[in-house]
Amino acid sequence: MENRKLDMLRAAMPYAAPEFRKSMQVILQAEELARYIHEDNEAEVRACNLDTACDAVGMMESIRGFCSKPEQDMIDMILNFIRARNMYQAYRKFAAASKNGNDNLMNDFLMSQLSPEQKDMFGQMSSMMTGNEV
Known about the structure:
- By secondary structure, the chain is mainly α.
- 69% of the residues lie in helices and 0% in strands.
- It has six helices and no strands.
- The chain has helices at residues 3-12, 18-39, 56-64, 69-97, 105-112, 116-130.
- α3 packs antiparallel against α4.
- It is elongated.
């Protein structure tokens, strides 16, 4: 349908009987969708594009709120696996970069992953556990 006819249909809609308005709106939306698909030859469903990196963790965290409890548990298990894998990969990079024979490598790595506030809190907690004053 050409633009002129769509514009005429839009202009007539407020004057049409209420029982015809929904049909008119469906026609307009279908024509707009058809035009979009036809005009955008480069369109693709980006979620299915395996060549681009996606934020799987962010996606799962977003959809988690719409899931049932068993589905949430499954998503949590997958997220924990992904986070553990990421932590292991980060540790391997850290260990490869720190080949200085440090016996306390794991502790150093874990401390490197904390924010300054978390490091302060950890130091305070360690002091309380060992009985030393901060």
